[in-house]
Design brief:
Number of strands: 12
Radius of gyration: 20 Å
Shape: globular
Oligomer: single chain
Number of helices: 16
Strand content: 15-25%
Structural class: alpha/beta
Length: 378
């Protein structure tokens, strides 16, 4: 970190799991009848949420471009220099981003993971060609799959079931099916990310990744597969995740927002299994940070405060709930996870490391300087 005139510069703040493009475009999520009903319907049909076709975008191209640009500008104002769009479900987003980038640098650079359904419908050849032709501000990075549901609506896949019910949630794919679908993309150098919230789903994803890459740590490190969320983990999973070298993209705000729901969902004897970020870090797991915007707010400093202090008092973020100690990380580690110097620089009103945990909520964003992707980075 380096001091600069008018503030303090840190390696650029990055959000490694968001749905910024879809939210900015105003495309509705497909669960008008409720998340649980949606998950049950998709599972009964043999699909996953990442296989659902996105409805056609509403509005002329210029209006859609304006919406995306406004969303990217909002992310930059929050201090971000890079956002990963986790599960793009229509190709027009990339078309619009490339058009915007031809006019000049984007407010933030955008990594894109394609939704599994979109990737498979168009096929490897088409997406390989589009990946090779991407410009310096938007990159096609990987494919997102979906293993289970969510914690709060009781659809994530658990080993022992939800408290008082025996219901083990929804597992959209077993390990063999996930490996069969993901392996062709992995063989072409696409990163693989899989949504897995419950411990049964996390174990299934690890099984699938071992089917694809074996237990070769070097191969897995090069492929950099990810688990998105990893919210509930039985005792053996953190060490297994670390041993395999699989990344886990965590959402600091979930441990705060879901705090009232965890005891009811898991029961007092198992609530310690939820959001075990300190245990993962102690095991040596590779961690990444994302917001899951718009499920949670995109403000990276609020997320940093919640990850370090268990709560944030930034305007609009104060809640009665506080994340438990198991869901908190030391400030130095949290900052390393939040920042990516290769993505650019974020200028703040103070150095978070020097100011200390209690002062995070007082720090303001003064500006950002995103860097374009170099030609050899996916």
């Amino acid at each position: 970190m380096d001091e600069s005139a008018g503030g303090f510069e840190i390696g650029g703040l990055a959000d490694q799991h968001a749905h910024l493009l879809a939210a900015s475009a105003g495309v509705p999520f497909p669960w008008e009848s409720g998340v649980r009903a949606f998950h049950e319907r998709i599972a009964a049909a043999g699909g996953t949420p990442m296989d659902v076709v996105e409805p056609a975008a509403a509005g002329p191209p210029r209006e859609l471009a304006g919406r995306l640009l406004a969303g990217l500008t909002m992310a930059a104002a929050a201090g971000l220099v890079e956002v990963t769009e986790m599960g793009m479900r229509a190709a027009w987003y990339l078309d619009v981003l490339e058009g915007l980038a031809r006019r000049g640098p984007l407010p933030v650079r955008v990594r894109i993971y394609l939704a599994s359904g979109l990737a498979e419908r168009a096929g490897l050849a088409e997406w390989d060609a589009r990946r090779a032709g991407c410009g310096p501000w938007a990159r096609l990075d990987g494919i997102k799959f979906y293993a289970d549901g969510w914690l709060v609506p009781r659809t994530c896949a658990l080993c022992d079931g939800f408290a008082g019910t025996g219901d083990r949630g929804i597992l959209f794919m077993d390990a063999a099916r996930l490996a069969r679908r993901a392996a062709p993309f992995a063989a072409h150098g696409w990163r693989i990310a899989t949504h897995a919230i419950g411990d049964r789903a996390v174990a299934t994803v690890l099984d699938a990744y071992e089917l694809i890459w074996g237990s070769d740590r070097a191969a897995i490190a090069a492929a950099a597969p990810r688990i998105e969320h990893g919210s509930v983990q039985s005792a053996e999973l953190p060490a297994r995740i670390a041993e395999l070298g699989v990344g886990v993209c965590i959402q600091p705000s979930f441990a705060v927002s879901d705090a009232p729901q965890v005891p009811a969902a898991l029961g007092a004897a198992r609530e310690h299994l939820a959001y075990p970020w300190a245990t993962l870090a102690a095991a040596g797991a590779r961690l990444l940070l994302g917001t899951d915007y718009p499920i949670e707010a995109i403000d990276p400093l609020a997320g940093l405060a919640r990850l370090v202090n268990g709560r944030s008092e930034r305007p609009g973020f104060g809640t009665a709930a506080t994340a438990p100690p198991r869901s908190r990380l030391p400030l130095d580690l949290a900052l390393r996870l939040a920042c990516d110097p290769t993505a650019g620089r974020t200028r703040l009103s103070a150095d978070p490391a020097a100011a200390g945990p209690a002062a995070i909520d007082e720090i303001a964003v003064l500006g950002t300087s995103p860097l374009p992707f170099p030609p050899d980075v996916r």
